[in-house]
Amino acid sequence: MLGAYAAREGIPLCDFPLDGDLSQATWIDLLNPTEEEKARVQAATGLEVSTEDELGEIETSSRLFYDGTAMYLSMPLVAKMDGMPADVRPIGFILSREKLVTIRFNRSRAFHNFLESQHRKPMESGEPIDIFLSLLEAVSDRMSDLLENMRDELDAISKQIFSEAGTGAKHGRKLDNELQNVLKRLGRAADLMSSIRDSLLGVGRILPYVGQIAATWIDRENRERLKSLRQDITSLSDYDGHLNNKLQFLLDATLGFINNAQNNIIKVLTVVSVVGVPPTLIASIYGMNFKDIPELNWSFGYPYGITMIVLSAVLPMVWFKFRGWL
């Protein structure tokens, strides 16, 4: 899908007719572009539109380079629409003084929010660098929202793990199912936080590179925006690290509960096996087929044997209970 935008009637960013001359558009947005759309953009702008595989390369030299006319920038971008699993795909920016081209392969809430904001409060300037920085600010805001959601999710998991009404009041299969569910939630949170970290790292690499290459044609206001964005990304990266530490703590705690549950099972089996030894020994003694066993001819021999067996089972259990082993 191809979208194009340019200044019109005093409004810095308006929809550009798709049947018009794309060389006159300020921003061209390609979403899952077809070969025909890529060829059209390349013919209109003279800029090379990369494929998804090319944008996904992790070498810094592949993600950030300048050909003397335009900067070619790429980074992983996590897209998390409401009710949908996270989707991480590379996104490309081609930035020059006259034009901005974006190449993306998933529907990003950040881009959606940016375009929606233009209907409420249009930009003061529709220059490519202004659009580019506004998009990165929208990405930063979206990453902040996702981290806040992660914070709430981890808080909820923490309460579920440590509350007395949670794991402490559940036993057996119900506890096992709850702990397995917690592990799945922690796994999903870890995947999303890792994707957010990759996106923040990508933005963090792009900002100083753009500031260096475009130093001669970025005005003072946009230099301040670049500086502010770098501070925001650093702050979000630090907070992501804090949440990652909390997630690791919750994971360790959950595994600890699982280990305790397994130990309790082993303890019960051990007690049962120990308690069963004395009665078995007594029953074995009186089950021997020797002729001269005194109790065989005793009228109270059978009740006596049963009593001994019961006491030999009960007394160890009382002792274990007294020692706090049960």
TrEMBL record:
GO terms for molecular function: cobalt ion transmembrane transporter activity; magnesium ion transmembrane transporter activity; nickel cation transmembrane transporter activity. One of its GO terms (cellular component) is plasma membrane. Gene3D superfamilies: CorA soluble domain-like, Magnesium transport protein CorA, transmembrane region. InterPro entries: CorA_cytoplasmic_dom, CorA_MIT, CorA_TM1_TM2, MgTranspt_CorA/ZnTranspt_ZntB. It is a multi-pass membrane protein. The chain crosses the membrane at residues 268-288, 300-320. CDD domains: EcCorA-like_u1 (cd12837). It catalyses: Mg(2+)(in) = Mg(2+)(out). It is found in: Cell inner membrane. Its main location: membrane. Keywords: Cell inner membrane, Cell membrane, Ion transport, Magnesium, Membrane, Transmembrane, Transmembrane helix, Transport. Belongs to the CorA metal ion transporter (MIT) (TC 1.A.35) family. This is Magnesium transport protein CorA. It comes from Acidisoma silvae.
